Each structure stands twice: as structure tokens, then as C-alpha cells.
Amino acid sequence: MEMYQLVLIAALVFTMPGAAVGWVSGLRLPWALATSIPVTFGLFGLAGWVLGQLDIRYDWLSFVIFWLLVLVLAALWRGGFLLVARRRRPAADPEEPRGSPWSRVWENRQGGVLDPAWILPAAGVITGGWLIIDHSMRLFEKVPRGLGNIVQGWDVHWHASMVRWFMDAGIGDPTRMGELRHLETGDHMYYPSAWHVGAGLAGEAANINPIEALNLTSVVLPGMLLPLSVAMIAWKMVGRGGLTAQLAAGVAGIAVFGSPVLMWVGYYVGVWPYLGSLAASGVVIALFMHVPYRPVAAFAAMISLTGMVQMHPAPVTIVVLALALWWLLYLVWVPSHRPDTGRQALFVRLRDVGWLALAGGLGVAILLPQLLSGSEASEEVSSWTAFEDVTRAESWAKALEMQTRHTDMFPDFNQTLLLWLAGLGGVALLVWRRNLWAPLFWFLSAAMTANALMLFGEPWGDWLNIIGTLHYATAHRLVMPVAMFTYAAAAVGVAVLIRLISLAPLKMNTTWARVSVALSVILGVGAGYGTALWATRDSVLEGVEATLNSPRVDDRMVSEADIRAFDWLSAQPGAYEGSIFGEPADGHGWMYAYNGLPAVMRHYLWPDVHRTSATDLLYWHPDLLGVGNHGDPDQMNNVDKAAEQLDVRFYFVSPWSFWEFQEPRFQMIDGLWETPGVTPVYRDHNVSIFAVNRAFTDEELLRMRAPGNSPEELPPLPLDATGAPTFHRPTKPDMGGANPLETPGNPALDDPPVEIPATRP
Q1: What DSSP string runs through 9-22?
Q2: Which residues are CB-contacts of 357 (< 8 A; sequence separation ≥ 6)?
Q3: Are 730 and 628 in contact (CB under 8 A)?
Q4: Helix crossing, 36-53 with 3-25: angle to 10°?
Q5: Radius of gyration of the chain (CA)
Q6: Which helix (H) or strand (E) holds 689?
Q7: pLDDT classification of 376: cutoffs 50, 70, 90
Q8: Please, what is the angle between helix 3-25 and helix 119-139, to 10°?
Q9: CA angle 457, 462, 463 (to 5 degrees)
Q10: How far apart are CA 80 and CA 91, in angstroms?
Q11: 3-state per-residue secondary structure call for 349-412
Q12: What would the pLDDT profile of 59-117 be if each residue is shown by its tens digit?
């Protein structure tokens, strides 16, 4: 299937369910389309939890049934509003498209699909999305296996395993991720799964494999959301739906391509669900700001919030902080309805905050079982720090100039013009629109970024860390909302310049107003074209290719030798019937995402097991397989029992580890060549595969070792007295006696567990 067809399928999967629910629940069609993606992922995540709790397989059929049920609820919600509010027309949202001379012909359609005021914003968002997705997808043509390329990264391995598990097992319940990760114990684990469910459903719709679905989603989802979010932030910054807001939204949607710290660094570090959730934040903010003026939008807003949280919970702090500032610094002073009396003034303000609280509160209430289930993960997240050796002035400079981690991959990127335009936009917002909430949000976000680089003194550092630690206190994450608001403010600056050049403030007469509008539109189209040229200049495109393709072309974790070994292993007897063991940090676990091979390690992070578990014994002491016990080579020891318990049939060894500080496990790398309980069956460069003898017959082992089956020659097998190959298998249980080979207890077993960094959801 052609790339553009795959992109189209993914785009429809990510938008149509949410658009339908939004429209049926009462949103006008442009709003339903604009906010469709977070609503869709809210449906994906909620269906995953419900179906998982009911132990129903999650596939397209079960999702469509769930979707139809939600559509019924949405219709009831809208019907209730029609019955109750028929007598009174809702107040007009001052931020809706309205009032421009070129749209008055559609006065009865304001905010609807026939309102031409949506044209400029939509054009900018579509252009920005096309730039991001087109450039990103074309880069797959330069890497091995194209869209099926394995990204050599830490977090992506886990995301790939989750997509594979969803597509194979039909489980998308975030509270059941322990079944995937903790293979031995099945211990409880919460991990937000809506992003992975969306990838899996897109993969099933397009008939592609999990890794292809993973890569497709990693590009299409933020490629659609980032231009849309920054455009809607620019729109809401202006605070009214006139031509200035339309121009700002259109330019912002295009300009976002040029931000190193959003799509490109976010992609490079592999925080793909986090990036998807963050990219949705501007859309969710705008939808919630719409609620006081059209309370019927609360249903869609509620589900959109759940969509963000179920992709990744941390970016919801962006929504909460922005809305709190907007309410306190704007809506309290300019409520949704103009009151006539003091009593009405209080009532209107209570009504406004009440609708916001209802939409947010219902969203949290729906997610409460999941959030309580995942509360233990917050301690792991809050323990992270990423301070740098910088001065206080340097920390502020890095935050304000958005020069955080990995922006050195854009060495020639100059954003002086951007910052000047953002400054102009900020001044215009303060002086003209009396907008305090957006500049203050930007300042607090920059302060949190600076605090992550170098901790402020008490109490400011601790206060900023309340939010910062939820984002792992890492500057390259915390700078993302800084960038979103900076680019939106710069777009406002461009729009203000265009309106000033068009002499719009003069308002001489109707004819002049029309001429000014026409001139503004012409200049706006030119500004959009110029923005596209600025955003896609060579200094940016070089960094784009570096951030997207550098983790795709090296062999840090999965080499071509690994791929050949995965393919070979998948054709061997019993490969899918038991389990396969190895070092979790050497990348071999990608075999699960690649072709479904049952690796015990589905992530580089160590599973949740105790020191005497089967997993621990097989990791630390594989060189004891088949050595016997109590001086009797035929008695089973605890490592043999562990292999039997987990039904381990193969060891896959592919050094070296992901992180340099991870000590190599020489009990596997060297010890398995001497261990009598296993037989080497494959070797290719640094990749070796060993079969556990107890799991196979002699004939099966000999067949796997047939001449030419292994790319490189294997060592000879031990021979018995007749000269025939022999395969040692302990046949006696642990019968007790002197000199026990117990585990743990032997001094050799006292090695401390390897330190492996925690995962970042």
C-alpha cells in the first residue's frame, strides 16, 4: 500500500469516531472536526479499560459497539439540552468566527461549516500537518525496511511491545499491562494505553504489522495535532474570532514545523505517547474555553480530557494551569453572559466555573479507577531529575530561547525573528486584548524549564517542581509548552502587523473595511507562504533528518544480524510455544514486536520480580543450567527448575547493552558456551542462540544444528562412548544430600542486581 494511503487510513481512524461523537453531542461540525482526535483517543482508552475489565477481546467489532453506545449517550445529552434550552438562545462565544465583512453573508451560519472564517485557520493547519507528515514519511524511504524500521531507542521498545500485544491479544486495558511486562508474576501494572490502541486499530485497518503501525502513528498523530493545537492556542490568545485571530491561527499552524523542541526532539527521544498527549493539549484547552459559551460542548470536552490522560497523563497539567489562569484572569472579569444585576453577575460567574468544573470533574471521575490503579507510578516519575551544569542566567536563556536537550542537532537554527515577533505578539495581547493569562502561562512554563536545568532556591524550586516532576523534571519536556505558546504568540505578532499594514484600525467606512480585509487576506496568504519557507529552510530540514533517522539507521540495539536471527528463530520448533530468555538491555526483546516471538523481556526495564524468582535465576545464573546438584550431574538445580517453570526454550544473546554503565552479563555471553544444559544452535557475528536441552528431542536439536543452518560454524557437540552426539538433560529431581548447589545461597549468587533506568511512560 502506498504511503499516502496509509496516512489517510490513519487520519480517518484517529478522527472519525471522535468527530461523530462531538457532532452528535452538540458541537458544530468545524468544532467537532477540530477536536476529534483527543475525543477519539478518549474513546480508544475508555473502551480499552471497559473491555479489559469485562475480559472481552478488543478489536474493531467490539470498539464499534462501544462507540455506538457512546453515540447514544451523546444523542441523549444533546436531546436534553434541546428540551431544556429551547426557550433561550445560548450566548455567542466572542471567540467564534464572527463579524468580518467577508462572512456576513453567512451570518446565520456563524461558527458552522459554511462560515468562511474557518478557511484561513484550516488552510494553515492542513499545510502545517502536510509539511510535518510528508517530510517525516519520506524519510522512511532512506532507512532499512522503510516503515517497518526498528527505532534504536529505549522507550520505543516498550511502546512496540504494547502495540503488538494489543493486536495479538486484544487487550488495551491500562491496568492490565503487568500481564505483558511481568511475565512470571503477572503483577499489577498501570500504563496509559490509548496511544497504543490507536496505533493497533490503525494497523488493523491498514493491514500492516505492529512495527509499521507504531511508526505510522508516531508521525501522523503529532503531525496532525501539533499544527492544530498551536493554531487554536493562537486563536484563543486573541480572544475573539475576527480576522486577526484567523490570520494568527493560520500562520501558527504552519510555523510549528520549524520548532526543534516539539515534533523533532520529541520524536528523537522516543516519548511518542507523551508527544501525542502534549500535542493535543491546545485542542483540549480551546474546547474547554468553548464550554461556558456553549455548555453542550461539555460532553465532548470531558471525553477529550480523558483522551489526553489515557495517552499520557502528564500534559494534562498544561490544560489545568492554562484554564485556571484563563478563568481567573479573563472569564471572571468578562463572563460568558453580560449580567444586568449584581445577582446575575454572581450567578453567571458561578455558572461559568460550574460548567468547566463539571466537564473536568466528570472526566476525572470516569478515569478514577484507572488513576487510582496507577497512583504507585507517580513515585517513580517524581524521582527523576535532569539538572545540567549551567548558571542561573544560562538556565533562563536556555528556557526562553528553547535551547534544551538535543537542539544541538539544529546547529544553524536561528530563531531571532521568531522571538521578536513573539514579543510583538505578547505586547499586542497585553495592550490590545488585555490578555494576562497567556503571557503568565508562558512565563511559568519557562520558569519550570529553567528550574529543571538548575533548581531554584526554596520555596520557588519546590513549588515549580510540583508540576515539573510530573514531567520527569526534564527540560526537553517542560520546554514544549513554552515553544507552543511562543510560536502562537509569534503568529499573533504576524497577524497584528498584517492588520496594521492594512490600516484596519482606522475603520473609515464599510468600503474601506472591505478593502482592508481583502488586503489582509492577501498579505496573510503571503505570510503563510513565507512562514512555510522559513520553517522548512535547510537549517531546519537537516536537523529534521538527523532527529528522525539517526535512531533508525544505527545498530545500537537491533542489527541486521539480530533481524536475521529473529527470522531464523521464528521457524524453529517450539519457538512460539514456550518463552525465550536473554539480557533485557541488549535489545533482543524486539523479537516480540517484530514477529511475535515470546521473549520474556518485553522492555529494557527489569520486570517486577523478587531476588529468588525464576526470572532472576535465569538472568544471573544461566551458566548453571544442567550442571547438576549435590555432586550428581543428573539432579536438577534451582536454575533448571526456573527454566522449566517459565518454559524457557531458547537463550538469545546479542551484546552489548543499551547503556554504557550496564555491566555485561558474561554468564550468558561466555557461560552459555560451556553450560551442559544448553546447546548452541545459531551464531552470526555477535548474535548467538542456545536451545535449552530439556525442551527438545535429540532429533530437533540436530535438525537445528544441521550444516548450513547457522551462518557461522558452531562448535562440535560432546560425544558419548560410541562417538554419537550427546545432549545433557538432568533427569532426577533434587534429592538432597551434601554439597547442594542452591540458588541463592552460593557465594557466586550474591552479585547485586543490575541497575537499569526506569521506564518513562
Answers
A1: HHHHHHHHHHHHHH
A2: none
A3: yes
A4: 80
A5: 29
A6: strand 687-692
A7: low
A8: 140
A9: 110
A10: 18
A11: HHHHHHHHHHHHHHHHHHHHHHHHHCCCHHHHHHCCCCCCCCCHHHHHHHHHHCCCCCHHHCCC
A12: 999 999 999 999 999 999 999 999 886 666 555 566 555 544 444 444 445 667 677 88
Q: Quick one: CA dihedral 452, 456, 461, 467, positive or negative?
A: negative
For residue 88, the model assigns a pLDDT of 62
**Using CA atoms, how far apart are residues 488 and 481, in angstroms rounded to an integer?**
10
Helix 316-326 vs helix 272-290: crossing angle, to nearest 10: 20
Please name which of 385, 422, 421, 416 lies closest in space to residue 403, comparing C-alpha atoms. Answer: 416
pLDDT for res 696: 96
pTM: 0.92
156-168 pLDDT, tens digit each? 999 999 999 999 9
Q: What is the pLDDT of residue 751?
A: 45
Least confident range from 39-48, 587-596, 728-737: namely 728-737
For residue 656, say if its preceding peptide bond is cis, omega within 30 degrees of 0: yes
pLDDT at 109: 57
Residue 603 phi, psi (nearest 5) = -160, 160
Q: Grid cell 533548581 — which residue?
A: 455
Strand 648-653 and strand 678-684: the pairing is: unpaired
Residue 585 CA to residue 591 CA, distance in Å, equals 13
Is the CB of residue 478 less than 8 Å from the CB of residue 449? yes
**Residue 333: all three cell numbers together:** 472579569
Higher pLDDT, 676 or 658: 676
Q: Within 13 Å, how many C-alpha atoms sit on residue 355's CB side?
A: 24
In which residue are the cell numbers 512554563 written?
445
Question: What tens digit of pLDDT does each residue of 434-476 get?
Answer: 999 999 999 999 999 999 999 988 888 888 888 988 888 899 9
Instruction: Kindly state the percentage of the chain with pLDDT values over 70.
Output: 92
How many Cβ atoms are within 10 Å of 413's Cβ, its own excluded? 19
CA-to-CA dists, residue 224 to 37, 134, 253, 263, 309, angstroms: 9, 11, 10, 11, 18
Distances (CA, A) of 554 to 141, 214, 549, 558: 15, 19, 9, 8
Summarised one tens digit per residue, pLDDT across range 518-563 is 999 999 999 999 999 999 998 899 999 999 999 999 888 899 999 9
Cα dist from 61 to 6, 58, 74, whole Å: 21, 8, 20
Residue 463 has a CB neighbour count (10 Å cut-off) of 14
Q: Which of 234, 219, 235, 94 is nearest to 151 (CA)?
A: 219
Instruction: Tell me which DSSP letter residue 173 carries.
Output: -
Closest CA to 233 of 285, 275, 300, 277: 285
Burial class of residue 524 in the structure, from the number of CB atoms within 10 Å of its CB (0-12 exposed, 13-18 middle, 19+ buried): buried
C-alpha cell at 476: 526537553
Cell numbers linked to 48:
480499552
At 380 the pLDDT is 54
**β-sheet bridge partners, residue 682:** 689
652 pLDDT exceeds 50?
yes
Q: What is the dihedral of CA 154, 545, 560, 270, to 10 degrees?
A: 10
Cell 512460539 belongs to residue? 576
pLDDT of residue 90: 53
Spell 61-100 as b/e; 16+ CB within 10 A means b: ebbeebbeebbeebeebbeebeeeeeeeeeeebebbbbbb
